[in-house]
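Q: Sequence in, structure out?
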Amino acid sequence: MRSMFTAVLMASMSVACGGGEGGGGGGADDAATAALGTASVSGTVTFSGTPPSNPAIDMAEEQACRDKYPGAPTDPQVVVNDGRLANVFVRVTSGLPSGATFPRPSAPAVIDQDGCLYHPRVVGVMVGQGIEIRNSDPLLHNIKAVPTVNRGFNISQPQAGMSTTRTFTTPEIMVPLECNVHGWMNAFVGVTEHPFFAVSGADGSFSVAGLPAGTYQLEAWHERFGTRTATVTVADGGTATVEFSYSAN
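A: Exactly. Output:
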């Protein structure tokens, strides 16, 4: 059941005081490669009402995974702690300088298969950035990417300690990852052209830093509750606060 939800936007800007342009970017053509700015957007994803129960997982045939849980394992589709929602992918969707590009991280994002679950469940990368998929379980996992616009992949990791790195070449929100051996295993990769994204943590918090001054539209995405947008304006050195509120109703 898709829950209805609302987004409450609270924007506050601090007055920019001194300071220079942020590092990053580079090159003489500033229109092609933009320097990172000094503005930021942070916030919290809240959840009101009783969250839906997560499906139970039968790991009876995978005792090595079952032993990693003190209680009955569940599929963590909805993770709510004290009214705060985790695993929400938040990104800037408009407002960046036209034609600007940003340097991608040299380090890969890491997704670990541990206890027959993907960790983290939601991750963001830039186009061309590596995604290192690890196996920490002493058993076979088969990782299948099911994108819509990117090229998919299907790789096997039969032993603990194995690692495979893949990349995506086109922006896409979101790319599902599955395991052909364990049908309950799911993860989601957000692929963007810029570094201005975040995933809400266990306390529902997120932060997007290094923005140039401007007015931006943000989108929040959750695998069960869908998307919502908000608009915020922030100055050099300023901070804006955004609250996305989801409901069980």
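The mean pLDDT is 88.
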